[in-house]
Specification:
With about 70 residues, the chain is mainly α. It has a domain of about 40 residues. The chain has 3 helices and no strands. The longest helix has 20 residues.
């Protein structure tokens, strides 16, 4: 469940520059939520709550270290 939710969240950005980006990301999130719900990774209530919120806050994830080989 957490993996699918992380994938869903990773498709969203805190702020987009243009409305077309917002629409595209919104459709990607909706698709990811639908897939997660269909596979049983999240409940129908979780999917409804995500869609009603219309906003997902991303946790800051530190970048991976670069190997200096």
């Amino acid at each position: 469940m957490k993996t699918i939710l992380l994938i869903t969240i990773s498709f969203t950005l805190a702020a987009c520059k243009i409305p077309e980006q917002n629409a595209r990301l919104g459709s990607l999130v909706s698709l990811a939520v639908s897939i997660a719900e269909a596979r049983g990774a999240i409940t129908s209530q979780d999917a409804t709550d995500i869609r009603k919120a219309e906003t997902i806050i991303l946790p800051s994830i530190p970048p991976l270290p670069v190997s200096g080989k």
